[in-house]
Amino acid sequence: MNDDLFDDTELDRWLRDNAGRYNRTPAPDGWDTPSNAVWEGLRAGLDRRKKRRRYGWLWLFLFCGLFAGGLIAYRQMPAQAQRTGQQTQATQPPASGERPSVPAFDPQANTRPAVAAPLTAGRPLAGNRLKRPSAPEAPACLAVPTNNPPAPAQAPVSSPETPTLPFPAPGRLPQHSIPLSRTADLRPEPDFKDITVRRFSPSPGAEGNPDSSKILILNAIKIYAPSGEPLNRQGESAAAADSTVFSTPGLGDRINRPCLYAGLTSGIFYTSRILPSGSGQLPNGQEWGAWAQAYGVRAGLLLGKRWALETGLQSASVHLSAQRNIQVRYQVAQEQFDAQTFAYRSAAEQTIETSFGAMQMRMNLSREPNRPIANQEVLEFLLRTDERVHYLRTPVALRWRGGGAGRWQWSLGAGLGINFENGYDLEVTAARANRTGVRNITARRLRNRAAGLAPMLLDAQLDARLHFRLTHRWSLQLTPEFRYGFNSMYRNGPFRSIAVMGGMQVGLFWTGSGSN
Amino acid sequence: MTNLSDFHLVQGVLRGDPQFEEGLYRRFSHTMFRVCLRYAANRQEAEDLLQEGFMRVFADLRDYRGAGSLEGWIRRVIIRAALRALRQRRVFEQLDEQADGRLLAGADDAEDAQRSADDARQVTALLRQLPAGYRTVLNLFAIEGYSHDEIAGLLGISPGTSRSQLSKARAMLRKLLSATESTYPMQPEKMKQP
């Protein structure tokens, strides 16, 4: 060795000069020429990426379309409800004589100015400006349906079911009560926390200006019609509000209004498969399912008081571990040797059977020098594989909301899922041949050649969901879910392979409301 | 495709034209395969690294601003992808352990190192006989010109470990060179090339 190379700098320079020079011309003996399988794998990977990008845009557009559709429907419904209310008012005008008068507000007894804007029952009270209470009530569209029979639409004020309190005389209004002087008074106050429906009977002889009979009580929304009957913010009577299917008082105006919800989910699923008996050749050896992670987004549209249509986009996978004896007709493509071992490389067209069908795979074998392997010789291997098929899944499910108590609700869902295969991983974790003389095998799947897989899977899903309301709009959801495949995971495979999976998902969901 | 400039080749790839993609690969595959051979333990692993590296090149090509040479940019991307892949395979986990004294006895590598008249091939074969940690640090420091701090950041090791690995790698390489040269002496004028 040259003495210069004992110097570190010289050694580094020597390395740089000899190995660091880059020449675009390949060496004549081809030692620096990669095999054609690299480009084939690269080509397939690039094609897959382009395809995935196209599908990605498609799903994004679909999701945006669904979201926009839901939003439009959500925006349209209040206007219809308002028109319906006005028509009702026009066709059935309340007789003024039937409406008990209420005492006029005495400006001396309160620092707030007197009422200026007249209000009548059935007329919306600038409801668009009202915010819902900040208490952790569910949005109206998600309120728990009650099993109580609905009350009559126009229950009498003195109904025995409704506690009746005497309507306060002027100057004796309940604490925090103010007269409704302008629409600004309808804006929520910081301490606006609860909704309490109380009724007041008109005090005898309290005839006065009907305009002053509308009173907003802070800390407990109360808007009084001239009849002394509390109104909700749409100007409907509390009795009418009570006739809704929702148990939350004062929110009845949002009855049956479409409501959108969306959220992120994450979970784990135990994935396995079923090989229907009698459907053909079965794989040898043992096979186990495995846990696989799933995550995605979900969105739903409420279609009434109990039903919802749900969809989303989810990354899911089927994970299998297998150990099997396989017989391979070994196609020798290249033979190398040194003093101790002979090494063989299989042809690129070499295929072996895996859990998901035939895969092209390159296998390198080393053997003892005195035990050659002939071309096309049948070899038996014990092959251990760890295989994952990745899917992009879109579920379409119908959800039925059962009920609940307090912050808890539960619902059941059933539907279909479309899975698009978007990736495949195969790890050969161990391999051993029972042929004498073979010392070592390394196997490598030639990438992106999972041609035996079906590109699309259809499955059915069944789930039970537990909702826990965190705040007014946000909720945590825990969903045990089961899925069962309809079609085989193979394409032209020797046997049908049905994916099954069961697991648990957690999700954080945001719920839009029915507010105008 | 061979007469196209690098700039036009990149434009074609960015348009998603498969012919340009293949053209880019064919133009640089030999050069980059040499790089991968220096980092990989064997030819098969080098092909894996090359494929993963070119996937990264095609994915990140929009980031190439044309500031430097395309070849240099691709080489950096390939090296980083190779290091990431090797790191995922936990090649560097045993960097601090006693890897010295054990050569990676690749049969074909030893053969390459002894019989080849091509210096690049010979040096590559010698490097591939080094343990993965030694090989990687020596490659990054001596050939690619990274500092110890940069190597530490790339490999997730301390700069001190990088220095010690380099020192051991040089010692082992000298040992290998001595053994090789006793059979096939290298020509002094080639070694002294600036």
In short:
With 516 residues, chain A is mainly beta. Chain A has 3 helices and 19 strands. The model of chain B is unreliable at 95-117 and 184-194 (pLDDT under 50).
Relevant terms:
heterodimer, A: 516 residues, five-stranded antiparallel beta sheet, elongated, B: 194 residues, mainly alpha
Layout of helices and strands:
The complex is a heterodimer of chains A (516) and B (194).
Chain A: H1 8-19, H2 36-91, E1 164-166, E2 177-179, E3 199-201, E4 215-217, E5 223-224, E6 230-231, H3 238-242, E7 260-274, E8 286-302, E9 307-330, E10 332-337, E11 342-346, E12 351-354, E13 357-367, E14 377-405, E15 408-433, E16 438-445, E17 456-469, E18 474-485, E19 498-511
Parallel strand pairs in A: 1-3
Antiparallel strand pairs in A: 2-4, 5-6, 7-8, 7-19, 8-9, 9-14, 10-11, 11-13, 12-13, 13-16, 14-15, 15-17, 17-18, 18-19
Chain B: H1 6-14, H2 18-39, H3 43-60, H4 70-88, H5 107-115, H6 119-128, H7 132-143, H8 148-155, H9 159-183, H10 188-191
Helix pairs in contact in B: 1-2, 2-3, 2-4, 2-6, 3-4, 5-6, 7-9, 8-9
